């Protein structure tokens, strides 16, 4: 493979090509770069499948925008893990190889492996759900039918259905009462027709008495009277049935309205229940259905599910796994040497800068102190020179006697001028006896 192409794979793996000096390390990190490229495609498909599963498999177009973003995030994490070298910055001036790298800790490996497995599960599970979509749809259909039956039986639909049955029973009772009267009336009319036919037969001489005609008070006449009486009773029963039906009309109408309202509510509620139940087919429901298929038919579905899942998880963790297996190789030692050398140089430069700052500060303090000392010495020289000039001036000037007497007079109402005319010494000198005289 050309060197430029190998360097591209190393850059994909977030590895410094200048530090890869052995053939083994170059093959190792090139393989990691290939796994990362393959994983980008795989993570793109997994992210798109996750969005599709979250949208109830309506195949939204934006899943192909979210998928590459998820893949980029996962690949960035893998590149960060692969490119990170645990360099030890303790004793940076030491050349012992055991001081180059930090000692591995359980938390470091567990954290990296846990994050890798988390990404692997989030990416792998949607692909597995898409792989067994047909079986999952059949299981969800069965589950949804069970849920609808349970809702119809135990929910508000069951209560409304029981109320409809009660209203039907009440209507059937009213119908039975009216029908009983109508049946009795019909039976009486049928009996009346039978009696009348007997009367006709008897009047023709075919009756029991064998006497022709229908004289008053005879058997024929009695049969006719009984037939007419039954007709009257039948008519009375029809009237009673009609009156009963009139009294039931208000209750029947109320029951009919209630049944119509309940039927409409039941239909609307069933549609709402069906919509809600069918909506329960997202990622969680499909995962539960997949788990049911795995546990109920392990040798038919579970073995292949677990096998494919482990294979995809191995692909997810391949880059990080190779990184763990290659800890302490030549590449990491080279990177550690370069980093420790730069750190040691930076430390020496920092120490030199601090030392220079200290020397500069001491020099500045010395200059300032010497300047202050020189300034104070100059001030003393100026003061001594002024005092000497004043003394010379006082000794060189001749004061008349009148002025001396005036300045020496201790009068109460006159301000002494000795201090102004004779200088500062006159303030502390008392006049002599000769001067007073």
From TrEMBL:
Sequence intervals crossing the membrane = 27-49, 61-77, 106-124, 298-322
User: What are the protein's UniProt keywords?
Assistant: Membrane, Transmembrane, Transmembrane helix
> What segment(s) does the record annotate as region Disordered?
412-437
The UniProt entry, under InterPro entries, shows: DUF4407
Q: Which domain of life is it from?
A: Bacteria
Task: Tell whether Membrane is among the UniProt keywords.
Answer: yes
The protein's name in its UniProt record: DUF4407 domain-containing protein
Organism in which the protein naturally occurs: Paractinoplanes aksuensis
């Amino acid at each position: 493979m050309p060197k430029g192409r190998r360097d591209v794979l190393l850059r994909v793996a977030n590895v410094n090509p200048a530090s890869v000096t052995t053939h083994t390390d170059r093959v190792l990190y090139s393989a990691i770069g290939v796994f990362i490229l393959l994983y980008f495609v795989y993570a793109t498909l997994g992210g798109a499948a996750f969005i599709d599963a979250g949208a109830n498999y309506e195949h939204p177009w934006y899943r192909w925008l979210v998928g590459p973003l998820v893949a980029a995030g996962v690949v960035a994490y893998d590149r960060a893990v692969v490119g990170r070298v645990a360099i030890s910055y303790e004793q940076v001036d030491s050349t012992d190889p055991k001081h180059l790298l930090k000692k591995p800790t359980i938390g470091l490996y567990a954290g990296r492996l846990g994050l890798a497995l988390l990404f692997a599960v989030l990416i792998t599970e949607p692909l597995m759900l898409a792989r067994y979509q047909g079986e999952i749809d059949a299981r969800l259909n069965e589950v949804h039918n069970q849920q609808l039956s349970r809702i119809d039986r135990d929910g508000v639909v069951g209560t409304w259905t029981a109320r409809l049955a009660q209203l039907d029973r009440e209507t059937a009772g009213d119908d039975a009462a009216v029908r009983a009267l109508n049946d009795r009336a019909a039976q009486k009319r049928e009996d009346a027709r039978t009696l009348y036919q007997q009367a006709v037969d008897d009047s023709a001489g075919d009756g029991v008495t064998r006497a022709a005609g229908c004289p008053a008070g005879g058997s024929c006449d009695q049969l006719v009277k009984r037939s007419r009486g039954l007709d009257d009773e039948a008519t009375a029963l029809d009237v009673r049935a009609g009156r009963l039906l009139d009294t039931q009309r208000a209750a029947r109408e109320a029951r009919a309205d209630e049944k119509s309202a309940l039927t409409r509510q039941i239909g609307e509620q069933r549609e709402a229940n069906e919509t809600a139940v069918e909506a329960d087919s997202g990622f969680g429901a499909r995962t539960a259905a997949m788990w049911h298929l795995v546990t109920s038919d392990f040798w038919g579905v579970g073995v292949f599910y677990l096998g494919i899942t482990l294979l995809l998880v191995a692909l997810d963790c391949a880059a990080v796994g190779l990184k763990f297996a290659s800890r302490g190789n030549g590449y990491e030692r080279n990177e550690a040497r370069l980093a420790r050398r730069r750190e040691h140089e930076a430390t020496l430069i920092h120490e030199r800068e601090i030392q220079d700052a200290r020397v500069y500060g001491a020099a500045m303090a010395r200059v300032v102190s010497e300047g202050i000392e020189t300034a104070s010495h100059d001030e003393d020289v100026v003061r001594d020179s002024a005092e000497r000039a004043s003394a010379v001036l006082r000794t060189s000037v001749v004061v008349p006697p009148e002025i001396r007497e005036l300045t020496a007079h201790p009068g109460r109402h006159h301000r002494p001028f000795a201090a102004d005319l004779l200088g500062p010494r006159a303030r502390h000198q008392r006049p002599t006896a000769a001067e007073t005289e």
